[in-house]
Each structure stands twice: as structure tokens, then as C-alpha cells.
Amino acid sequence: MIYGIGTDICDIRRIRATLERQGERFAHKVLAEGELAVWRRRSERWPDRGVRYMATRFSAKEAFSKAVGLGMRMPMTWRNCEVINLPSGKPGIRLHGELATWFEAQGLTAHITVTDEVDYAASFCVVEKL
């Protein structure tokens, strides 16, 4: 049974401007540890790919927060929600801390997709009750 659906579109230019102003501080606010490592590797080698990676993660977390109906309030936090790539390349959600505990107690599972184009990143999330 569908518990919730969320979608988000993110202006990559806005993320780029925020990163230019705040740099690592913004990255530490939004990205979980695993994502932070990927962002750093991509940013060092291809700065534009780092920005796009950040935008897709930002968008995916917004879509997830809408699908679970919490918005950005506890137990939902930027860093407790991690967007991963499964071995197949398909994006997935890995939760941490209180958010993981809450999500499991609700009997929920999430499906996420992300995409990006020149100026925008977009995500769509469906959360099911098992």
C-alpha cells in the first residue's frame, strides 16, 4: 500500500551558488558521511559533477521527506537520510539514527529515482507500507 509520494525539482545553479558561498559547511549540512566522500572525489576530479551530485542528493532528500510526510523535522534530517547507488546503479535510500528507527517501526520501504539536466535536478519518491 502506498504510504506517500514525494517529488522535488532543484535548480542546479542555486546549489552551485550556495556551494560557492558556503563550501564544505553546506556539504556537511546536507550530505551523510558516505555521500560526502563521493562528493569530494567527484568535485576534485570534475567540479561540475560534484555540483550535480549535490543537487541530486538535495532533491532526493526533499522528495523523500515529502513522501514520509515529515518535511525537514525530526526524526528527518539531511544527514540521517543517505542516497546511495545500489550495485546495479539504481539509487536507493539508506537511513541512519532516529530516522531509521522511526521508518522501521512504521513498516515502510522507499523507492527513489533521480535525474539531472543542464540546469535542474529532479527526484521522485514512493514510500510503501509493508
What does this structure look like?
It is a single chain. The chain has 130 residues and is an alpha+beta fold. It has a single domain, classed as Ribosomal Protein L22, Chain A (Alpha-Beta Complex). It has 5 helices and 5 strands. Strands 1-5-4 form a 3-stranded antiparallel beta sheet. The longest helix is centred in the middle third of the chain and has 22 residues, at 47-68. The chain starts with a strand and ends with a strand.
Please give the largest β-sheet. Answer: 3 strands, antiparallel
Report, as a whole number of angstroms, the end-to-end distance: 7 Å
CATH architecture descriptor text: Alpha-Beta Complex
CATH topology heading? Ribosomal Protein L22, Chain A
Mean pLDDT: 96
| Name of the CATH first level | Alpha Beta
Unreliable stretches (pLDDT < 50, length at least 5) are none
Element order, helices and strands?
Answer: EHHHHEEHEE
CATH H-level superfamily? 4'-phosphopantetheinyl transferase domain
Secondary structure category: alpha+beta
Estimate percent helicity: 40-55%
- Report the sheet-strand fraction: 25-35%
> Rg from C-alpha positions?
14 Å
Number of domains: 1
In DSSP terms (H or I, runs of 4 or more residues), the helix count works out at 5
Q: Walk across the major sheet and give the strand order.
A: 1-5-4
Shape: globular
Count of distinct strands? 5
